[in-house]
Amino acid sequence: MNQKIDWKSEPDDTIVCYCQKVNKKTIVSAIQNGAENIKDIQNATKAGLGKRCKELNPKGRCCHPDIAEILKIYGKSNISDCCCCSNCS
């Protein structure tokens, strides 16, 4: 299942990280408060730190590609630390 989500038009309450139950609004807020990469998002929100992605995420994959996409839209797109739990491609 390789669905592409249009994060710019998704509602703020859309879940991005199912393991930690972190929504888009929380991630965008972290970016607005200075988060510049996935590690910063993880530190600020705990998003992307779960290990049950394939089980909890309806897409059956890590949320890091979604976090990266939100960073591209709302922040600086300097993403070099993409995934810890799956392949970002």
Could you explain the architecture of this structure?
This protein is mainly alpha-helical and 89 residues long. It has four helices and two strands, in the order E-E-H-H-H-H. The protein has a two-stranded antiparallel sheet. A hairpin with a 4-residue loop joins strand 1 (15-17) and strand 2 (22-23). It is globular. The two termini are 13 Å apart. The mean pLDDT is 87.
N to C succession of SSEs: EEHHHH
Strand order of the largest sheet: 1-2
**DSSP summary, beta strand count:** 2
Q: What CATH architecture do you see?
A: Orthogonal Bundle
Radius of gyration in whole Å, from Cα?
11 Å
Q: How would you state the average pLDDT, rounded?
A: 87
Total number of distinct structural domains:
1
Q: Give the N-terminus to C-terminus distance in angstroms.
A: 13 Å
In short:
With 89 residues, the protein is mostly helical. The protein is built from 4 helices and 2 strands.
Secondary structure blueprint with pairings:
Blueprint: E1 15-17, E2 22-23, H1 24-32, H2 38-45, H3 53-56, H4 64-74
Antiparallel strand pairs: 1-2
Which tags fit this structure?
single chain; 89 residues; mainly alpha; Arc Repressor Mutant, subunit A; two-stranded antiparallel ribbon; 36% helix; 6% strand; globular
